[in-house]
Amino acid sequence: MTQNLNYILAIIAVVVTPTASMLGYFAATGDPSLRPLSATVDTLRGFFGGANDILIEVDWGDRAKANMSESEMKSTLRSAFLSKGIDAHVVITPREGSNRIIVSYKVGASQFGPMRLAETPRAVQSVVAAYRMGKQS
Fold first, then answer.
1. What's the whole-model pTM score?
2. pLDDT of residue 58
């Protein structure tokens, strides 16, 4: 019985050790590329964004009242830029204790925002202009 328990504990240790070490690395560095089971294109884009990419960062307050879900928000923001022929990447970060939705736009080294969600239509025009100027240079 004791020998079987030792085998079971050894198997559990072999399975859990890599995951625990990667979570520890993520907690220490914030690098999402090695976080187990959660590396998505958008989170990696937020960490390793290219020089000319448009990155949209949305701070979503947990008490915010919105007319759409997070996935609908992501789709709507992407569509606004796709209609201009530009592929933008959206990263939504939940914020505890906040009742606001704040949006920031990054184009290369330039940052627009943070601003309220209601200011998005004007921001899209400015961000697209900055993106195109960056592409021309």
1. 0.60
2. 92
> Distance of alpha carbon 99 from its chain centroid, rounded?
19
b/e burial code for range 99-132 (CB count within 10 A of at least 16 → b): eebbbbbbbbeeebbeeebeebeebbeebbebbe
Which tokens hold the place of 132? Answer: 């195109």
Task: Quick: pLDDT tens for 85-128.
Answer: 888 888 888 888 888 899 999 988 888 989 988 888 888 888 99
Using only C-alpha atoms, the chain has a radius of gyration, in whole angstroms, of 20
For residue 82, CA distances in Å to 18, 20, 24 come to 39, 39, 37
